[in-house]
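Before the break, one more example. Copy the sequence into your notebook; we will annotate it together after we see the structure.
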Amino acid sequence: MSRRNGCAGCAGTKAGYLAVTPEEVESQRRVLEARARLREGYTTRAKVDELCHRVAAKRGQAAADQLREDMRQQWRTRAQWMQCAPG
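Here is what the structure looks like once it is written out:
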C-alpha cells in the first residue's frame, strides 16, 4: 500500500482525503445535536417533551423519537464528553 500525504489510510482515495460515508456524517450530526441540546438545559422530562414536540412539528415524529433516544444515549456517556466541553 502506498502512502499519500503521509497517511497510509488515504491510499487510493481522491487527493489523499479519507472517504466518509453519508451514514457516518449523519451519525456524527445526531451525536452533536443531542449533546448540544443537553448542554442547552434540556435535561428534564418536561423540557425534553417540549423540544421533541417542536422537532416533531418541523421534522416529523421519527426525528423527534430519534433525538430523544440520542439524548438518552449521550446522557449515559456525558461524563466522558463533558470533560472536553469548551468553556
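The chain has four helices and no strands. Helices lie at 22-39, 45-59, 61-76, 78-82. Try to locate both features in your own notes.
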